[in-house]
Amino acid sequence: MSQPSDIEIARSTAAEPIDTIANRIGAPSDAVLPYGRDKAKLDLDWAVEQAAAPKGKLILVTAMTPTPAGEGKTTTTVGLGDGLQRIGKKSLICLREPSLGPCFGQKGGAAGGGYAQVIPMEAINLHFTGDMHAISAAHNLLSAMVDNHIYWGNSLDLDARRIAWRRVVDMNDRALRQINVSLGGVANGYPREGGYDITVASEVMAILCLSKNLDDMRTRFSRIVVGESRSRKGITAADLKADGAMTVLMKEALAPNLVQTLEGTPAFVHGGPFANIAHGCNSVVATKAALGLADYVVTEAGFGADLGAEKFFDIKCRSADLSPDVAVVVATARALKFHGGVARADLNIENTSAVERGLENLGRHLENIHKYGVPTVVAVNCFSGDTQAELDVIRSFCEGRGQPIAMCTHWAEGGRGAEALATIVADVADSGNAYFKPLYPNSMPLDQKIEIVAREIYRADSVNFSKSAAAKLKTFQDEGFGDLPVCMAKTQYSFSADPDLKGAPKGYDIPVREVRLSAGAGFVVAICGDIMTMPGLPRNPAAEEIGLNDLGDTVGLF
Question: In sequence order, what E strands does 387-452 have?
Fold first, then answer.
């Protein structure tokens, strides 16, 4: 008998009423705003109140460098949360919201997999509570007000050649990366070049995820720099009087979303910036509320530790005054073989020597996390094709370094398959051995911050700044933005900016071709190599297989 698909498993599980899940975290009925029977938003004021008295241990789930085969980081996050509950620990899971772009593109959804999922899987992956649409609307409102201001006389003297604020849509659409707007005559405005990013790369998304409350969110919106005047003065959303309306559109979106796992463990799924082109972490509001409600909070950061974990530490933890207690690094034998030189088609063939070669990638990620003073646990997400010899190589590597490790089967067994991991993680979190510190101080100049990430985390020899990027960094520094952290936008498939350099490459440079100021979110984005802030669909997108069956049920979603 074939293994049921993720969506079949999710659909076959009877969800508990959302009121029951809310009661499990101690939420009063008047703080629960149901969206149907199986999902809800929590009252924002109530959620913020919980953040005032943190008591939980913060557990970050990250991973080795991802591969096309998938490592199961979200699945492990869910499995660990369920495993903690099974060993008698009060846990709460914090995940990011999926983007429609990857769902219909190549990556798929972001609700976990197998028997370690959050539900309702279809709703979470498709529209959910409307947060993505609110973000798109707020972002594009500001875009419309930029061009409207120019049309009606341009009293701020906004230079149409120096508008930095693009438009967004929550879909992979390469045709929109670079466009011309206001064509068709005088009535349509002043023609200029523009473009679209994917919604999850929007600064509005970053602001949602880093805001502590509504007032903080409006303040951050007001600081957004949309472009420059002809005299090179920064023009903000506050100058355009857009911050109030943007806050109105985002009021409900800032409230955390509550769902559950297949085993009834409460989960906040809120905010979803990509980690390769944004900062890759769920919302501060959700994380801090969870820390006030549970003894152990399990959260994730996008892609590999060089992207997601670095930004979690240097951007989110710095901004929100968070101090993680342990980092779980997900690895698979398949990923290790891939980084050891095995082609994707041959990953199910035993190859212990390739596993050994690939361990250099895992080892580098562990070393990097330890630079932040955070202890690590390796979670090996086991697949049915793994051999005992391959798993023994991984275990021997970790034990030789004194590195805690657990073999996990949560995809097939749910929380039961992550009990060993849960026990180790709880022990490490309770040990008090974490002494978290960011990689660099706020006072370090922006170009040096980029260089230290490239050198210490990516292990690059140097950074090559384009002439325009170097000039913009100097401008940002001179204008008072030098204390901001940096958000590196690069490929997720390599430590380098070249996705074809597998394993733990050395002897290369990081090219920074463009930098963007996110003054509202509170960071500077460095765009490295060929990374795009608007992805494209693959040759055969997942959308080709998604549809409805005769019963009206969604098929093809994964």
Answer: 405-408
